[in-house]
Design a protein that fits this description.
Length: 396
């Protein structure tokens, strides 16, 4: 399987929370340590002065991080062996007296799936469950938030798109003493197998049923790879989304190792901070794209319903392809008329283009009335990104 040679597999989680009796933070943001002021969210509409009625959790990676230093990201990380261990089958049986296989079928769809999910594996749990466990474990490591439940999931079809948002307080484990939670978090950071041990001890199962499929992003190719010893730091990553209502925003903290800041803000606020040079924010193209996508859903119910329906549809692997202009940096995505018919996923070909480098205005004028699916940046800092889509919705 090529993945072992050219990239690592990973999972990331976009947490979208709508507090009901929450005090809003000044400057329309929920930053650690910020001063609170009284206000209330309304469930049916976007609060005055806010673009969305929910907040999305993001972390800022530390400047010393080996991968994407100083960039704002969603919590996530690399798949580990423990994520597909038979121990999860045993734990589910222990807690529920039921078979995990019976409840794993809820993720099944006959639609096209990316190789990261559809490839046959000799694992004890199916890929849909393993990668969700990975996303939940990494979220616990990086944020201290535990998405786990002691309740048996409803045995319903994922095609039930009308299901409302889950409740954090009712469906997650919230009764762990904070000192014990911090201790386990430290142990899991040092050894990922401790996550399974912790779940056995507290008799709770990662709430994989709260996560909806969202996207599959593959790190682009920047230079030719001649051998596995020269492989880049590339990741084939499944993006999940979890929409939930809560009394107040769950209290998470950065780990002060790989990350140094945790923020709950609306998608619009995250992108506004990125565009503000004074904020000195950086963000990779997938995060920019997904936040822009979330802005289309100002109400959390809309986002939740879309995620449930979208996650059941065709899911393709997206690998961005770079194109330079004299005054801009373009990220081409599948469906764009300039996107290659046969992308070099493995990176074994020479990375070069015979096309002339022209100003962005000239290129866009030439591309008028053609299928466009791209993100345009002023430079390689990925600041002030602009997403342009004129493609069919099936590719979005």
């Amino acid at each position: 399987m090529a993945t072992a040679k050219f990239w690592r597999e990973a999972a990331t989680l976009m947490l979208a929370a709508r507090p009901q009796n929450h005090t809003l933070f000044e400057a329309a943001s929920a930053v650690e340590g910020a001063k609170k002021k009284d206000a209330a969210f309304r469930k049916s509409e976007t609060p005055s002065g806010f673009s969305e009625d929910y907040r999305v959790l993001m972390l800022r990676r530390s400047a010393s991080s080996a991968f994407m230093p100083s960039k704002c990201v969603f919590p996530g990380g690399v798949l580990q062996k423990v994520d597909h261990s038979k121990g999860w089958v045993d734990l589910f049986q222990k807690i529920t007296r039921e078979s995990l296989d019976d409840f794993s079928g809820m993720f099944h769809t006959n639609n096209i799936r990316p190789p990261i999910i559809s490839d046959l594996r000799s694992w004890d749990v199916i890929s849909d469950v393993a990668f969700r466990i990975c996303a939940i474990r990494e979220t616990f490591e990086e944020c201290g938030l535990l998405l786990a439940t002691r309740k048996l999931p409803e045995l319903t079809s994922k095609a039930d798109f009308s299901k409302e948002c889950i409740s954090w307080e009712k469906t997650m484990v919230t009764d762990m003493e904070q000192g014990l939670l911090r201790s386990w978090r430290s142990r899991v950071r040092e050894n990922s197998t401790e996550f399974l041990r912790m779940c056995h001890e507290i008799e709770a199962f990662p709430n994989v049923w709260a996560l909806e499929n969202w996207r599959n992003w593959l790190t682009p190719v920047f230079e030719k790879v001649d051998s596995s010893s020269k492989k880049q730091t590339r990741f084939d990553t499944l993006f999940y989304v979890c929409c939930f209502d809560c009394d107040s925003l769950p209290h998470g903290t950065a780990d002060d190792r790989e990350t140094d800041l945790l923020e709950w803000m609306s998608p619009t606020e995250h992108l506004d901070h990125l565009a503000d040079v004074k904020q000195k924010r950086l963000m990779a193209p997938p995060q920019v794209y997904e936040l822009e996508r979330m802005k289309l859903f100002p109400n959390l119910n809309q986002l939740n319903h879309y995620a449930r329906a979208h996650g059941h549809e065709v899911m393709l692997r997206w690998m961005p392809v770079m194109k330079m202009c004299t005054d801009a940096f373009i990220i081409l995505l599948p469906g764009d008329h300039l996107y290659p018919a046969e992308p070099d996923y493995d990176g074994t070909k020479e990375v070069k283009s015979n096309d002339p480098v022209v100003p962005i205005a000239q290129l866009m004028a030439k591309d008028e009335k053609k299928n466009l699916h791209r993100i345009i940046f002023k430079d390689e800092t990925f600041r002030n990104g602009r997403v342009i889509r004129t493609i069919a919705s099936s590719l979005q």
